[in-house]
Write a structure and sequence with these properties.
The protein is an alpha/beta fold and 154 residues long. The chain has a domain of 101 residues: Nucleotidyltransferase, domain 5. It is built from three helices and seven strands. Strands 4-3-2-5-6 form a five-stranded mixed β-sheet, with helices on one face. Strands 1-7 form a two-stranded parallel ribbon. Strand 5, helix 3 and strand 6 form a beta-alpha-beta unit.
Length: 154
């Protein structure tokens, strides 16, 4: 094998390649994009379309919210601005377990069941019967302050 001459003088000069191969990075980014596009609709929270009224009074700041979905599924959550750790995600419950769950959340907020405001947020396509059953079972178990969530027209 012939001896190499210093660079710049001979035919066999070697230079370092300064190019970066970006094809693997593009492949990884496309795979991540596909993963996010597939999982994004699965993790979006369900939206409840509330009925609209002219002017609605402001809801209390601390309350238990009972959400009735289109398929009559119930979700209960506590909204307490004083205690940020209590604002957990909604937990699904059955109609039978609704009073016990509301009582636990009221105790967590430091209020009794009759003093705790409960807000029922039902989709506008939910049957009237589902809202009345939830309202009735809450009233039977001692909840005094129950309201219905509505959306105000601007």
């Amino acid at each position: 094998m012939p001896a190499m001459q210093p660079s710049g003088r001979g035919r066999h000069s070697r230079r370092a390649l300064a190019d970066i191969n970006v094809v693997p990075y593009i492949d990884v980014m496309l795979v991540l994009l596909i993963i996010f596009m597939v999982t994004a609709p699965l993790i979006t929270p369900t939206m409840v379309k509330l009925p609209t009224v002219g002017n609605a009074p402001q809801a209390p700041s601390t309350l238990v919210q009972v959400t009735i979905q289109k398929d009559d599924m119930l979700e209960v959550s506590l909204r307490d601005p004083r205690n940020k750790s209590s604002n957990a995600a909604s937990q699904p419950v059955t109609l039978k377990d609704l009073p016990q769950t509301v009582q636990q959340l009221a105790a967590q907020a430091g209020l009794s069941l009759d003093a705790m405001p409960v807000l029922i947020a039902a989709d506008k396509n939910v049957k009237y019967d589902a809202v009345m059953r939830a309202l009735n079972i809450l009233k039977q178990h001692g909840v005094e302050r129950v309201g219905l969530a509505v959306q105000s027209n601007p």
